[in-house]
Amino acid sequence: MNAPLLSVILVYYDDRMNLTPCLDSVLATPPDIPLEVILVDNASTDGGIEDVATAFPSVRILRNAGNLGFGAANNRAVRESSGEFLLFLNTDTILQPGAVSALLAAVRPDAGAVAAGPLLFPSEGKVQVSFGSRVDFLGQLVQKTIWNPFYKRRLRRHPAAREAGWLSAACFLCRRSAFEATGGFDEGFFLYFEDIDLCVRMRSAGGRLLFVPAARVFHEGSATTGIRPAASRFEYRKSQWAFYRKHASRGSLRLLRAYLRGNLGFQKLIGRFRGEEGRSRWTAYRELLKSGKGNR
Predict the structure, then answer these.
(1) Which of 171, 191, 219 is the last residue of a domain?
(2) How far from 83 is each of 12, 36, 121, 268, CA to CA, in Å?
(3) How many domains does the chain have?
(4) What average pLDDT does the segment 264-290 reach?
(5) At what angle are helices 279-291 and 250-274 packed, to 10 degrees?
(6) Residues sharing a CB contact under 8 Å with residue 93, sequence separation 6 or more, in sequence order
(7) CA distance 26 to 269
C-alpha cells in the first residue's frame, strides 16, 4: 500500500460531544487526497474513544496511559504516521468543504512554504485571529489591543492570504520534512505556546508560514479547557513564561515577570470569590517566577 499524502492527527481529551462531527468532516475530504487519520487518546474518561472505535473503524487510535500534554501526544502520532504532509487538528473543529485542498494547494507547489493555517471561525459572521507576528511582551500587547480587533474586522470583509510569523495549531498543516527537521513539538510545553514555539523554529530554519483564508474551519474553542478555567489559566501562564525564557529578550522577560506577579495576585483574589482555591497551583506559580526555571 502506498503511503498517504496526508496524515491527519488529533489529540483527544474528554471532548465527546465534538468528536463525531469533527471526524465526519475529516473523512469527507475528497478521495483524491489519500489520507490516514490518527487519534491520540490522552487518558480520556468520557467514553468518546469507544464511540470512535465503533463508528469510525478506519481511524487509528493510539492510547496513552496518562495525559502527556498536547505536544507529546502529537509527536507520538507523527512517529507512527507516514504522510508527506501532517495536519494537526483540534477535536472541536469542523473542516469546511475544500479546506484541506486549499491548504495543500498553498503549500505543496511552493518549496519555501513549510506550513499553512486556515481562517478559523466560531460562528457565522465571526472570526478568530489565528496568526500573528512577533511574540514578546510588546508584540503580544500590540497583537491583543490593536491587531486582533483590526483583523477581526478585516477578515470578515476582505480576507486575504498573507505570510505569518506563527499559526494556531487548532488546524495546522505542515510538511513532515520541516516538522522533523525542527525536532517536532517541544514536549516541555504541556499545553499552550507549543505551536508558536514550533513556528518560530520553522521560520528560523528558513521556512515560510502561510495564512490561507480560502480554507475555512469552524473552531468552537476551549472545548476541553473551558471546563477547567483555573487550571487552564495556570497552564497558559506557565507555558508563556517558558516560551519567553526560550525566545524573548531579557527586557521582555522582566516585563512579563512583573506582569505575571500582578496577575497572580489578581487571579488568586478572583479565584477565592469563585471558590477556586488552588493553593498548591498558585504556590507553584509563584515559585516558578521566583526561581526563573521555567517549565523545563
Answers:
(1) 219
(2) 20, 8, 27, 45
(3) 2
(4) 62
(5) 170
(6) 22, 25, 120, 170, 171, 217, 218, 219, 220
(7) 43
Last residue of a domain, one of 200, 219, 238: 219
Strand partners, 40: 11, 62
Statement to judge: residues 141 and 79 lie in one domain:
yes
In a domain, 110, yes or no: yes
pTM, rounded to two decimals = 0.89
Q: Is 84 domain-assigned?
A: yes
- What is the Cα gyration radius of the chain? 19
Q: Is there a single domain that holds both residue 128 and residue 268?
A: no
pLDDT tens for residues 53-67?
999 999 999 999 999
**Of 148-152, 187-191, 245-249, the least confident:** 148-152
Provide the residue range defining the domain that includes 260.
229-291
Q: How many angstroms separate the CA atoms of 296 and 284, rounded?
A: 14
Name the most confidently modeled range: 149-158, 164-173, 267-276.
Answer: 164-173
Domain at 136, CATH number = 3.90.550.10
DSSP type of residue 13: S
Q: Beta strands 113-121 and 208-219: pairing type?
A: parallel
- How many residues appear in the chain? 296
C-alpha cell at 289: 517566577
